[in-house]
Fold these 3 entries.
Entry 1:
Amino acid sequence: MTEPELEARQLELLGETREVYCLGTGPAVIVMHEVPGLHPGVVAFARRVAALGLRVYLPSLLGEPFEPVTTGYSLRSMARACVASEFTTWATRKTSPVVQWLRALAKLAHGECGGPGVGAIGMCLTGGFALAMMVDDIVIAPVLSQPSLPFGVMPWQKRDLGIDDDDLATIKQRCAALPAPALIGLRFTGDRLVPAERFQRLRDELGDRFLGVEIDSSRGNPHGIPRIAHSVLTHHFVDQPGHPTHAALEQVLGFFRSRLRA
């Protein structure tokens, strides 16, 4: 069932139709959910973005929209993502095919909403999609929250950014022309799904245009963040001023505000 205030749409782009839920008014932000799907925590984050005076587009890419998170549901969605052709979960130097559809969605959203450009945030499996969407000039506020693809089993996978070489070259050119930071990344330091090597690669390639926010989740950290913490803005978010996940949220919201509402 559609949550109150969310506008349900069936959008056909590039010959493929997907459910997209919209909220708010103003310049557009594409919010791409994590595993297992468009769960209530992602919608709660989207409401915070919409409260800035922005219009949020929430495409449903996996799972059942608004279904609460359970272990079984998460495992089923992860298994589906690992075999789905839309997601490049293991291959290096390759952009996931679903990004083409998301780029088309960003263009549609910009046409509908206007403004200086479009924001985009990906989480977990979709984390790197916000980076890949930077190929288009209209994407001016990308956020990579715990970007997990490709899965970092081998050393070269840990440094991989989940995009092909041509996309990376275009993104580097774009970043050089943008003020710092041009994009933001979020991760917990103990998160094995988001290796530190991946953030270091972003710094190596993009320099000060990349702002990496790395939250201490080591044993005995002062905020009691578990070592298995992964989802910065949803599952492991603590809505308490002074908590590092709350500070990360404020950085993301401030980034969207400064780039899209200035």
Entry 2:
Amino acid sequence: MIIFRQIVHQIKQDKLSFSEDDLKRSIIRALMYLIIIIVLHVVLMVLFEHFHWTDGLWLTLTTLSTTGYGDISASTLPGKAATIVLLYIGGIFLAAKIAGDYFEYRASIRTKKMNGTWEWGMKDHLLIINTPNQHGETFFMKFIEQLRSSGIDDCNIEILTEKFPQGLPSKLSKMSGLAHYTGSALIQEDLAAVGPEQAKYIVILAKDEQDINSDSRTFDILYRLKQMDVMQPLILAECVDDKNREKFKEMGADIVLRPIRAYPEMLVRGLAAPGSEQIIENLFSAEGEHYLRYDIQLSGLQWKNIVIKLLEKDFGLAIAYIDINTGALITNPLAHEEIAASALILMSNDNHTIAGIQDILNALQ
């Protein structure tokens, strides 16, 4: 399968093979022919029209540039024939050929950028490897919006994926600082093309968030990055099977997360504040922290006193309350704020004492 992908990759490159080197070779070759035509026409003007060589050069250049001042012109039949053959047919054709090659080169660049075959040469960028199987455009839109609002707004983004060979979806293509490269991280040339060693962050998405076999692919990518001595970037990898977490970290992943596609915020938190993503991830797990609600009315108490008194009893950490007047959930209030609550929400774990309502009331007296 990998060999087949490499063959397809090479065919794709050949179809878009008009490179900068091709342009240079074409221009150099055309200029050489143009110089020969200019010299030959000047010589013929001296022989047939008996011009001084400077007049012959003036006539050649003004005719070749299609300016045509008319102050000097060929009057003999051989001179006119030489001008028609060398300048009108040969010279102007070569000038047009150079211009055409340049525009073809520019069009080739645009096509390569659109199809994801252009090597951007980014530095200090965010490299995303793979694309979600479903709703990839929506996922990336939410991810990038969260990223831009998290403080990581000066970082260009490059996606290495096989999903968009015809170009990024319209909404993604309009986002500034976003590019993609069509390829697979399992092909060394493709991986090298996106400059992982120059990246600031690398995010490896699970190929299929429901298939534990995706972890073997992610492990392979981590191995390839390690072989390339990619040490600088912060590497975040999604792991379908929790048993593989430590293996990923041993292979160089700094952060390992479960793939929860509806919440790309977890990935953003991991990049912006490493460690905080674990708190968010635990919300989706029955293990670790528990979030308990106590429907009790509290008033006239400062938030800091509630937090301290409950911690002293090992009941857990008070993280929010329900406002008795508005019914709104208030998280992380100010320390000296006096609250009026209809319910209190605590975060605890297996080491804390599971308290009842009366226990909470007694602790807060």
Entry 3:
Amino acid sequence: MLQQLIRQFHFTKAERHGAVALLCLAGLGFLAPVVYRQTYRPIPPDHSDFKKQVQRFKTAASSTNATSVATMFEFDPNTASVELFVQLGLREKVAQTIVKYRTRGGRFRTPEDLQKIYTLPEADFERLRPYVRIKSNSQPTAPRWQPKQVAQLQPFTFDPNTASEAELLRLGLPQALVTRLLRYREKGGYFFEKTDFRKLYGLREPDYQRLEPYIVIARADKPIRPATYAGGAGKANPLEVLDINTAPATAWQQLPGIGAYRAQQIVRFREKLGGFVSPAQVAETRGLPDSIFQKIQGLLRLETPPFRTLNLNTATVEEFNAHPYFSFKQGQLIVAYREQHGPFARIQDLGKIAAFTDHAWLNRVAAYLTVE
């Protein structure tokens, strides 16, 4: 047995020499990096050219400033050009800011007014102030916008509920006011009396006094003024109470302050919710002022329950995200929890999700959830 082991692990002389040679080569391979690091010294990069360029730049900048200081002269900031300001030693960007200020109607009346230019350094202002000469007859540059001049106004009878944009402009009303009036009409607004036109936001009193004799409001297609409007008591029939989950947009338009646009907004919000669970939710409609909601709150009733709910065990992330009370991230958390822990046994299990710590939100969304 011993002889077999000796024969098994016996090396010839040539094999022993080869093994020794391999060990030597391996040792040299390990020692070579160490020797290289000890003997090689990298040549540091030459930054002399870069330093020379920096020095030339500093020298040029210094000479420019010296030239600017040396070429000071009197100037009028209301008429000086960009090139003139640059010759006075100002940066081109600051010079352009001054000229832009003038083109928008700005005017320098005293040397201290130059401080209105926030990009003008204090040192430059102190340097330029002794040379500022403002001429009394220098006129400010005409502003970009000038009010439209009406050559001759020729008032004529008009109905503010039907007059076109061109007709309103011919009456001498500003474009912004005409646009506001048209938007008011598009949203269901109506002028019942001449004095209603007077309440139009932005209408100046002299313009109203000038146009008041020419205002004629047609009576044929005039809508019924709600009884809750000022001055409407006893002139209109009492408004009917609305079922907030079944009333169409046309029914909402009969309420005070609710035009066609706002009625559509309320109906769209109701459809996204799946139905209201309380009249107070109507106030959450985007763009609905609280003052208007307070007027109509007494006319709202919940007679029909919500018509659509979300099943916690089958609803997708997209379905949750489409609901106004859920976000895309919340939908992802609900679906992930359901896939990890199995179906929800009850709606209250939604509170087991660590991220859902807002109890008020949990109570609000519970009315729109089911675990069927």
